[in-house]
Every structure is written in C-alpha cells, then in structure tokens.
Amino acid sequence: MSTKEKSLNFIEQIIEEDLKNGLSQDKLRFRFPPEPNGYLHVGHASSICLNFGLGIDYDAPVNLRFDDTNPAKEEQEFVDAIKKDVEWLGFKWDKEVYASDYFQQLYDWAVEFIKKGKAYVDSQSSEEIAKQKGTPTQAGEDSPYRNRSVEENLDLFERMKNGEFKEGEHILRAKIDMASTNMLMRDPIMYRIINASHHRTGDKWCIYPMYDWAHGESDYVEQISHSFCTLEFLPHRELYDWFLNQVYDENKVRPKQREFARRNLSHTVVSKRKLLQLVQEKHVNGWDDPRMSTISGMRRRGYTAAAIRNFADTIGIAKRDNLIDVSLLEFCVREDLNKITDRVMAVLDPIKLVITNYPEGHEEWLDAENNPEAEEVTYRKVPFSRELYIERDDFLEEANSKYFRLTLGKEVRLKNAYIIKGESVVKDENGNIIEIHVTYDPDSRSGSGSEASKRKVKGTIHWVSIPHAIAAEIRLYDRLFTNENPDGNKEVDFKEFINPDSLKVITGYLEPSLRTAKDGDKFQFQRLGYFAVDKDSTNDKLVFNKTVGLKDTWAKLETK
Fold first, then answer.
1. Are 405 and 314 in the same domain?
2. Which residues hold L-glutamine (predicted)?
3. Per-position DSSP letters for 437-472, written without gaps between them
4. Considering the domain boundaries, does residue 480 fall inside one?
5. What is the tens place of the pLDDT at every residue in 500-545?
6. Which run of H or of E encompasses 121?
C-alpha cells in the first residue's frame, strides 16, 4: 500500500503509522458491522467500499459482522438483504459472523466484571436513571443500587438471564464514573432484559448486550485491528477503550476505533429509522422502491455497482460531515451506463406520424448500432413501416429557425432510416394535433451509401414502428424530496418535503428488440435517458424504471 503512487487519506495514514510502529501486516483485519434492523443505504455503501477497499489494498481479511443485539428490531430478511447488497457491490467477506456468536463470552465477561466490582445490577426505572445521570455541565448521582454486594449482583444477574424478571425491572451497568465529563462513561448500561425471540438464538437468552458493550468486545474476539465508524461514535471511543482494558491480553491484537465523517446525500434521507417510516407509512412501495436511498432501491432503479463504487471513491473519506449533491451520484451512474448499455428506440409521449408516399403494408428491417462505446460495435435490426410513433415534442406546426426537429416544410432524419419532410397535420375537434403527415426521400436511407443518404439535415429524431411497437409501463422517477436537505431542520418533519411528483407512470412504446428484455437489463432510450427492466415485469407486460436522464436537468431548475 505504502508503495502506491497516490496520496493517502487519513484512515490509510493511521494504518501506515501503525505498521511503521510495529503492527505486523498479517495482523491487519477489518470488518463491516451492520445491524440487521433495515436495508442498507448509500451511506452504508461508502462504509462498505472503505472497509472492503482497505482489505483489497492491504491484502487483509474483512469480516461481515452482524451486530444483532436487539431482537425486537432485527430480522433474517434484513440479514439476507445486507449479504445480497455487499455481494452485489462486488465484495467478498472472509468470515460471516454475528455478535450473537459471542453472547456466552460476553455474559461470562460480564460476570467477571461483577466479581471485580466493575458492574452492578440497577433496579431503577429508565426515568430515574436518566434523571440521576446529570447533565453535560453537572455531575451525575450514584444509583442507590451502585454498592450492592457482589453476591447480590451475581444472583440478580443470573436470574435476569433465566427470565425471572419483566423488561425494565433490572439492568446491568458498568461501574465507571458518575462525574465523568463524558456522559457515556457515567455507568453505562451493559445488559437489558428483552422478552423477544432472536432470529438466530431463538428464546435461549432473555438479556441482550448493549451495542457499546458488544461492539468493541466482538472486535477483540475477532482480532480486528482497525474498527472504523462514523463521527457520531467519537464520544463512544473512550468507553470502547475502557471495556477493552478490562479484558485485554497484551499478547493479542488490540482493536483501534477511529472515526470518519458521514457523507449525506442531497434530496434524500439516510437514517434507517426514517427510511423505515417511509416504508411503514407507505410513502414508498417497500425498502427497494427505486426512489429510496437504499442499495436495493438503487439497484432496482438501474444503478450499477461500479457507479456506486466510483461515487464512493470520488467523494472519498473526510473528517467533517457534509452534504453531497445527488447529481454527483447521478453523474457516476450516467458515466458507467454510457459505456455498457445498448441504444434502443422508445417513444414515451407518442404522436402518430404517417409517411404518405411510403407503400401501404410494406415493411423493411433496418440496421441500428447497439453501442458506439463498445470495443466491438454490433448491430440489430429494427422494423420500419408507413406509420410510426414519434415524441410529441419532436414536432411543432410552426417553429423558428432555431428549432431543429420536425416542422411543416422542413426536413429531419429519422434515426437509422430516412429523411422526411413535414407536409400537413390532422387535428381533432378541439384543434389538437393527432396525426402528422410527411413524405420521405426513398434514396436517403442511412448507411446505403447513396448521395441522398449523405445529405446533411440539422435534426435527427427517434421513432418506433406502430405495427411492431411493444406497449410497456414506464415509471418515471424524480427525487423523493423537494428540499436538498430534508433532514436539516429539526423543527420541520422531513416528510413535509416529500415530492408529490416523485413517481409518474405512463405507457411507452418500444422497438420489438426489447421483447425479450428481463429483470435488471439496462438500456439507453435514445435521446430520453437510461432505463432498466423492473422486477414487476411479466411475459405479457414489460415494466421499465427510468434510472437517470441523459443530462442533469435539476441543476438548471435549481439555478432558476
């Protein structure tokens, strides 16, 4: 790593310094430690890329550890979804482990704490404990149960484990310092009673360790060298180290916690609690709704793993929280899709076009380039006929000289086909155009090599042959929130900023090559944007999600 010609971020500098100070390279081990109480979001993607990226750079193992210490909120569904997300992003873990793997060890250590006078059972209510904990400027008060005898504490703790008490009757607290300036050090809770079945251990346990107790000790059991977490855990580092001090054997690797900044994304929220709220209150259609900032939502929308990895690499690692504009993520998605997607033709706001001098009942199959960015350019056949759909805004009955699409009396080229000239329109009783009549130049077919085919016209528009068109459901997604920082004002409910127009469902018409498209397939609809086949598709009906437009239209809107 140190020989690479690149500037190191501060996380890598920490590792390099530890290696320089004697930590053996083969002792490096990292972990990604999600709690299985929801689906992972784009913020987790950055953490995944950081930890697994370090594993790749340093040729070190990375554990996937589930911090499953609260059975009331955790489910196997979330475990499965997290594993799928990490694999989809392109990473492999060394060991799949769980905090619940260490429940017995954690319990045994807690018993030792009690025997050494470093932990006690507190029988106060949560309200009483909060009150006697003090304030940041005022020391806390000792619990009336702080000086229970070792024997009484051991008895109560075992009975807590055996399920003899109700939730809230007792807790186990570490005995540290009720006057500490760090309120997390004021006799923090180690165990609480939860009468809920655990997704892995079933009903074996009635007490469950708190995150602060389980996390660092799990790192220690697994011999994690560096435990990287977000900035909100900086005050927890002192407690992390205190817990480790009680069990640490100097012949083993001592885990080191260090913190990096969250990278919040504009026009969305990255709180699992708030994402859960959106799901439960049905503002979205599940955790994998393509408007969600979850990895599964982005995958369903058509984002690629490479684009998300590139986004994480681009924003990097920082020491201060900041808000990343979602347009940067969309740029990364657009950049990757441009390289890998085939170009196809689809019309989303159709108006009928009739080529009056094209033979009725005749059709021909024209060559169309799939992807000009590909190393080896390939072609497909698209059908052409007398009646076509074009986009409604590709025609104006009257237009100025700066309008380069179809209008009466002027020529444009139909993509991969012929040059046409606008002749007349058909209107309904309300004066709305329902049909455009044009003529075509039979000698102007693209790629034919004729003089007419080389003739330059200023505009090219896409089209779909009506007799061959496939009707499909098209889901047009916009940003879920109208405010760039919906979570930024604590006085306002973030849901006040939900965009009522974040989803629009229309019927589009596609070229027939898309008939065999399957879930997850991605395409560029020429001149319209990038689209992906949704999992709701059936053999009888295709459903496409708009992934991202060809250009960033929001930048212009927000400038205005």
1. no
2. 67, 211
3. EEEE-TT--TTS--TGGG---S-EE--EEGGGPEEE
4. no
5. 999 999 999 999 999 999 999 999 999 999 999 999 999 999 999 9
6. strand 119-122
> Which DSSP helix (H) or strand (E) runs through 343?
strand 342-344
Model pTM?
0.92
Tell me the HSE value of 512 on the side-chain side, using a 13 A CA sphere.
Answer: 11
Cα–Cα dist 313/304, whole Å: 14
Pick from 324, 465, 462: nearest CA to 393? 462
- Of 210, 245, 279, which residue sits at a domain end? 210
Sequence-separated (6 or more) residues with CB below 8 Å from residue 177: 185, 186, 187
| % of the chain surpassing 90 pLDDT | 92
Angle at 39 between CA 35 and CA 41, to 5 degrees: 100
In tens, the pLDDT along 395-435 reads 999 988 889 999 999 999 999 999 999 999 999 999 999 99
Catalytic position from the list 12, 35, 74, 217: 35
Tokens 């998300």 belong to which residue? 308
The one catalytic residue in 272, 301, 343, 445 is 272
Whether residue 438 contacts residue 412, with contact meaning beta carbons closer than 8 Å, is answered with: no
61 in the same domain as 50: yes
Residues whose CB is less than 8 angstroms from the CB of residue 78 and which lie 6 or more positions away in sequence, other chains included: 36, 37, 38, 39
Catalytic residue among 65, 161, 175, 262: 262
Taking the C-alpha atoms of residue 417 and residue 267, their distance in angstroms, rounded to an integer, is: 41
Residue 164 is among the residues annotated as catalytic for this protein: no
402 is a domain residue: yes
Backbone angles phi, psi at 70, to 5 degrees: -135, 90
The answer to whether residue 262 is catalytic is: yes
96 with 111, same domain: the answer is no
Per the annotation, does 35 bind a ligand? yes
Paired with 202 in beta bridges are 198
Specify burial of residue 25 (Cβ count, 10 A radius: 0-12, 13-18, 19+): exposed
- Number of Cβ within 10 Å of residue 294's Cβ equals 29
